[in-house]
Structures are given as C-alpha cells and as structure tokens.
Amino acid sequence: MTWRWHNESVGVQTEVFKLFRYESTTPCGHDVLVRARQPGAANADQTACDAADAFADSAIDHLRGWWERWSLRRECVQQHTSHLIAQAAGIPIGEELLGSGLRPLRVWVAAAARGLPWAVIGTAVDEAAFWCEVREDPDALSLKPQAPVPFDVYFITDEDGRLHLSDS
Fold first, then answer.
1. Does residue 33 contact residue 121 with C-beta atoms inside 8 Å?
2. Hey, how many other C-beta atoms are within 10 angstroms of the C-beta on 111?
3. Reduced DSSP (H G I as helix, E B as strand, rest coil) percent helix, strand, coil of the chain, to 5
4. pTM higher than 0.85, yes or no?
5. What is the distance of C-alpha 164 from the center of its chain?
6. How far apart are CA 93 and CA 143, in angstroms?
7. For residues 87 and 166, which has the higher predicted lDDT (pLDDT)?
8. Helices and strands (H and E) in the chain: how many
9. pLDDT in tens, 56-71
10. DSSP SS3 for 25
C-alpha cells in the first residue's frame, strides 16, 4: 500500500479520499466520502505535483457539487455548511472503498498521529475487524492511527459517471 499525504512525493497515480460533514442550524448531519484518482507526477517537479493535487481536488469539488444538488437537496431542505473531517491517499482499509460509489456505506476513520484531517479510512464490520486489517498493513500502521470512529456516509467516486444513474 502506498500512502501519500498532500504535497509530499507523488510519484505514481493514487486514490485520494476526502470525508466531508454537512451541517445546518437545525440538528442534521450528512457525511459524504469522495474518492478521486490523482495522476502521477515527477517527484522532482513541484509544478507537476501541484497540478496532480489540483486535478484530484477539482474532481472532488465537482463530485461534491453534484452530490449537493442531486442528493442532499432531496434529503434535507436546510441550508448547509460543510467542512473536511478526514482525508487519506492510497489503498484504503477494506475492499469496499475500491468499488463503485453512489451508495451509503459505513466507514471507520482513525486519525493519524500527525492529527486530523490525516487519517486511515476504511470499511469493516466493527472496530475489532478494522484494527485487524490495520495491523496487517505496515503502511497504515506507520501512520500510528488513533481510536477509530464510525461514520455513515454517502460514497461517491470519479468513476461513477460510467454507471447508468437510474440504476443507482
């Protein structure tokens, strides 16, 4: 597994995951987890690395905008503000985050030792199963993840446009 944090050596193409919380003045909470592919870039070329970061961020922003218009508005008529809760890059814990999106999903988020928003993000049936998978992954362990917290999210990816949206 390769974990790459924002503005560190990029090298190869990687998956970027960002978890956002949407809140309003009334009690509601909507979480969306977005996955986008970040292109590879030459490690020695900061301009290329910045462009790769910008490409993934742009894809994530576009997907969030789509979700806000097509899903959030139908679910909750309140005005919302959003903020980034967690982010990770590389291969996640659990295979469910490698598949297609456009679906609700429970994920576990364990803050990295360097602090949020950096985290290990993954799927598992419970906390014990999450830790079991983390212990088997040296890259995830190297982040020294803290106690995980479960989030019920709507999961979307930059590959979901290939699906027929009426099937989701």
1. yes
2. 20
3. 30, 35, 35
4. yes
5. 22
6. 13
7. 87
8. 4, 6
9. 999 999 999 999 998 9
10. coil
Helix (H, G, I), strand (E, B) or coil at 163: coil
Separation CA 97–CA 27 (nearest Å): 28
Q: What is the C-alpha to C-alpha distance for residues 29 and 43, in angstroms, rounded to an integer?
A: 39
Under 8 Å between Cβ of 136 and 150: no
Contact (CB, 8 A) for 150 and 106 = yes
pLDDT at position 26 over 70? yes
Which residue type is seen at 134?
V
Counted residue by residue, the chain has a size of: 168
CB 90 within 8 A of CB 4: yes
Opening angle at CA 84, ends 55 and 142, nearest 5: 80
Measured CA to CA, the distance from residue 129 to residue 22 in angstroms comes to: 28
Give the residue among 58, 40, 57 at the shortest CA–CA distance from 49.
40
What is the Cα–Cα distance from 46 to 117, expressed in whole angstroms? 23
